[in-house]
Amino acid sequence: MTTITRFAPSPTGRLHVGNIRTALHNWLLAKKSGGRFLLRIDDTDASRSREEYVDAIRAELAWLGLEPDEEERQSQRLEKYEAAFAALKEAGRVYPAYETAQELELKRKIQLGRGLPPIYDRASLALTDEQRASKEAEGIAPHWRFRLDHEEPIHWDDGVRGPQKFDAAQLSDPVIRRADGSWLYMLPSAVDDLDMGVTDVLRGEDHVSNTAVQIQMFTALIAAQYQAQQIPRFAHEALLVGKEGKLSKRLGSLGCDAFRERDIEPESLIALLARLGTSQPVEPIAERGHLVETFDLATFGRAPAKFDEDELQRLNAAIVHQLDYADVASRLPDGMDDTGWHAIRPNLSHVNEAAEWWRLVTGPIEQPEFTAEDRQFLAEAARLLVWSDTPWEDLTGVLKQETGRKGKPLFLPLRQALTGMDHGPEMKELLPLIGEGEARARLERAAKA
Ligand code: GLU
After folding, report:
1. What DSSP string describes 125-159?
2. Which CATH entry fits the domain spanning 363-448: 3.30.70.100, 3.90.580.10, 1.10.10.350, 1.20.1200.10?
3. Ligand 1 mean position to 42 CA, how many Å?
4. What distance in angstroms lies between residue 229's CA and the mean position of ligand 1's atoms?
5. Rg for the chain (alpha carbons), in Å?
6. I need a surface site. Which of 23, 99, 334, 351 has the fewest CB within 10 A?
7. Please, where in the chain does CATH 1.10.10.350 lie?
8. pLDDT of residue 127
9. Strand, coil or helix: what is 203?
10. How many CA atoms lie within 13 A of 235 on its CB side?
11. pLDDT of 228-286, one tens digit each?
């Protein structure tokens, strides 16, 4: 059976690093077994969903290289939910409830005050037909709850958490539909997972109790012959937290824009998020295929995954050092070719620093003050410079012979005269890029200063 996973964001905001991680893991899980990765836009909440966020989600997944194999939208599937609702109602698994939000809140407070768990007391389920009719005559439109089966045990083998068990009697019958007819998350998601043949639901551990409820929904939907399909496997990953151990506001708003602004490569973020919170080491793996092959839910830990931006920065530098010219060409300064990229790449933490280093090649450069002795040495260098395939090796070789200098006194004044800097890319790679004429001019200028 083909693995089918889904990433199901609500388009009520931009993706943050936690959502990106969930999307990535679903993508990896699908790709690992040659399966399909679906993007499901959970836009049943018309008042909070925005088209600009849908566009942003698509664009960000594309930037991350997590393009879905297919896209679905809940707002276009409303008749499916209607049919499922009718089937569940027919089967006695859905009932109208009339409590106001204030009444429910009061009940909750009373229960908590008595030291009881705040489980919905099913008062509306106990209403007689006459009582219901009189509520409706009063003009109270009901919302709708799914009736959990208290006799039916709930268990599943979670891909991350292992065997899970819930007692339905310890859960509230969830509200699935508002009085205005709009849908809450629970039922549409279960309907879609069945309809779309989702084999694996991988999401954050904040959904564990939703899964308990949804397992009964799946069973009820299948029994109502709405869809005769398999219940998906479930896995709930530990949440992502900041370095300080909490899901901070900052982390909750840290998304692709912020990473792009910091010139973080998507591959760096992917390499970090693929392994964070697992027993596998976080490594600067730029090759996506390797992350796919090594992805394994069994390595996921139960402790929260800690996101550390410094770690991302370190990883980024290591990833940049592996990128090919073709990966970055459009972001490099004019005239910087493959050779230039390879010369400069080891010095970069971010691709956008390439321009700064490339200026050492194109000039203008600012040279430091040299001692009289160094000026004489540099004059000698200008005179002895001959051009070949290996001008740096040749120049330093002949200067060593002629002047007796070696080590730092030999190399540093040359580097300073040729680039204006004390450190930087390998001179043997840089000098051919600077070119004979410019190199001689720089040496002569330094000798005169
Ligand atoms: N739209 C839901 C959310 O963003 C989807 C949860 C799920 O994966 O089922 O929380």
Report:
1. TT--HHHHHHHHHTT---EEEE---TTS-EEEEET
2. 1.10.10.350
3. 7
4. 21
5. 32
6. 334
7. 363-448
8. 97
9. strand
10. 20
11. 678 999 999 999 999 877 767 778 889 999 999 999 999 999 999 999 999 999 999 99
3-state secondary structure of 1: coil
442 CB near ligand 1 (under 6 Å):
no
Q: Which helix (H) or strand (E) holds 441?
A: helix 436-448
Residue closest via CA to ligand 1's atom 3 equals 9
- Return d(Cα 445, Cα 449) in angstroms, integer: 6
Closest ligand 1 atom number to CA of residue 42: 1
3-state secondary structure 260-320: HHCCCCHHHHHHHHHHCCECCCCCCCCCHHHHHHHCCHHHECCCCEEECHHHHHHHHHHHH
Taking the C-alpha atoms of residue 366 and residue 358, their distance in angstroms, rounded to an integer, is: 14
* pLDDT for residue 227: 64
Cβ-contact 85, 177 below 8 angstroms: yes
Looking at the CA of residue 7, tell me the nearest atom of ligand 1: 8
User: Which of ligand 1's atoms lies nearest the C-alpha of 203?
Assistant: 8
In terms of Cβ atoms closer than 10 Å to its own Cβ (0-12, 13-18, 19+), residue 321 is middle
Instruction: Kindly report whether the global pTM for this prediction surpasses the value 0.90.
Output: yes
Q: Which residue out of 4, 5, 7, 10 has the highest number of ligand 1 atoms within 8 Å of its CB and is therefore the one to mutate? A: 10
Ligand 1, atom 6, residue with closest C-alpha: 8
Residue 15 CA to ligand 1 centre (angstroms): 12
30 within 8 A of 36, measured Cβ to Cβ: yes
Q: Residues of the chain whose pLDDT is less than 50? A: none
| pLDDT one-digit tens code per residue, 187-196 | 999 999 999 9
Please give the full DSSP string across 62-128, using - where no structure is assigned.
HHHT---SEEEEGGG-HHHHHHHHHHHHHTT-EEEE---HHHHHHHHHHHHHTT-------TTTT--
Query: Dihedral, CA atoms, 156, 157, 163, 166, nearest 10 degrees?
Result: -10
pLDDT at 249: 76
**Ligand 1 centroid – CA 211 distance (Å):** 11
In the structure encoding, which two tokens stand for residue 248, read together? 């901070």
Instruction: Quote the ligand 1 centre to 241 CA distance (angstroms).
Output: 18
Protein residue with its CA nearest to atom 7 in ligand 1:
8
Residues in the chain: 449
